[in-house]
């Protein structure tokens, strides 16, 4: 499959994506645990069907030491016993924050409170921005049919 647009060759995309990628770097450097970041990025990408991001975040997570068992169970995290309560709270918030059209009220107060029990304000802020960031990245890739499969861990750092 060929991409509809080459973001790396387009001057407008280059200007905008430079700032977008800087936001991604700031998120990586936030106090939200790295494992949680990768699990959330992967789950949001699974929901949206973004193959590029599923490929990227699976490989980045493995490179950071994440286990295959946990990665394989992200899509079924509710029934899996391998996630901490904090990770479960983050995944639940990520799902509701991604499926806003399905949940007309947005993120439920109970879901928000559960996440706030496990993350301080700075981590919670990073989590919300990460969910939004990933939804944007997914849409950029899906709309332009970016091909997946050849991501190399660390290539965007």
Tell me what you see in this structure:
The protein is mostly helical. It has one domain (33-143): Up-down Bundle (AhpD-like). Helix content is 63%, strand content 0%. The protein has helices spanning 11-28, 34-48, 51-63, 68-73, 85-98, 109-118, 121-143. Helix 2 (34-48) packs antiparallel against helix 3. The longest helix is centred in the last third of the chain and has 23 residues, at 121-143.
Shape: globular
Rounded to the nearest angstrom, the distance between the terminal CA atoms is 25 Å
- Chain-averaged pLDDT: 94
Percent helix among the residues? 55-70%
Which second-level CATH architecture applies? Up-down Bundle
The gyration radius over C-alpha positions equals 15 Å
Q: Tally the beta strands.
A: 0
> What is the level 1 CATH name?
Mainly Alpha
Task: Return the domain count.
Answer: 1
User: Could you say what the CATH topology is called?
Assistant: AhpD-like
CATH superfamily descriptor = AhpD-like
Q: β content, as a range?
A: under 5%
Q: Can you count the helices?
A: 7
Helix and strand content put the structural class at: mainly alpha
Note the run of SSEs as H and E: HHHHHHH
Q: Uncertain segments of ≥5 residues (pLDDT<50)?
A: none
> How many strands, what sense, and barrel or not for the largest sheet?
none
